[in-house]
Structure formats: structure tokens, C-alpha cells
Amino acid sequence: MLYALLYRSVATHPVGELSLRALTVRAAQRNKELGVTGVLLHGVHEHLPEIPGAFLQWIEGPEEAVRKLFESISDDPRHQNVETIAEGPLAKLAGTNQRLFPDWDMEAGTIGELPATLAGFLTYVRRQKRGGGWALAA
């Protein structure tokens, strides 16, 4: 059974494109070993526009691997106020047994305002895929 988790957190320091890319490369290597795929979005927290930025991440894969990865993320000093938005079987959360990001060990992007809910995130993903913004994600 595939498992998924969507969380948001507040960045402890400003995150530039270069550091976001470096983080993504390291995460992709680790995630490949764990059998985890997903996407990391960086942007403005809708309720706290003055903070250095916020993260919204979707991770999917074997339940044990997703939980282990999230525990590591929760302990990462680059994150504070880590909040789980949704977690559970992929079919229950996304309405499909297929990974949303099957070819992405991890990809990242910066957007203006991060979605605050699972429904908002899924709507954003569908729009990106429909518009060709995420052509690599099947």
C-alpha cells in the first residue's frame, strides 16, 4: 500500500533558489534509496507573510519510509512549526492508487502563496499538470 503525507512548515532562515536546489538534490538521493517520491514547494505562508518563507511538501511511498522521512524532516533545524495537513493511504488522500509524482525522487519549486489544505494542494497539482507545468510528473 502506498502512503502519503502533506505537511507545511516555516523556514528558520531565508531560502534562495540555489539552496533550495541543493536541498532538492540531497533529498532526491535519500528518497530514491527509501522508495519515496514527491514535491517540495517553497513560498509565502498565507497567514505569516513576514516570515523568511514556508515549505509545503508532499511525500509518497511505502508507509514506513514516509513516516521515517517525516520524522527526519520534523527534526531538521531548517524547519519550525511543522504541521501535518494530511496523512494516510494514497488512495484515500489523492483518490488514486498511482503516485502523483512517480518519476520525481524529489523536485522543488517556488510559488507565491502556498496552498493551505489538501484540497488546495491537489487543485494546484492538477492545474500544473493540465497546463504542462509539471510535464515530468506522470
TrEMBL record:
BLUF domain segment(s): 2-107
Domain of life (superkingdom): Bacteria
PROSITE patterns per record: BLUF
Molecular function (Gene Ontology), one example: blue light photoreceptor activity
Pfam hit, one: BLUF
Protein name: BLUF domain-containing protein
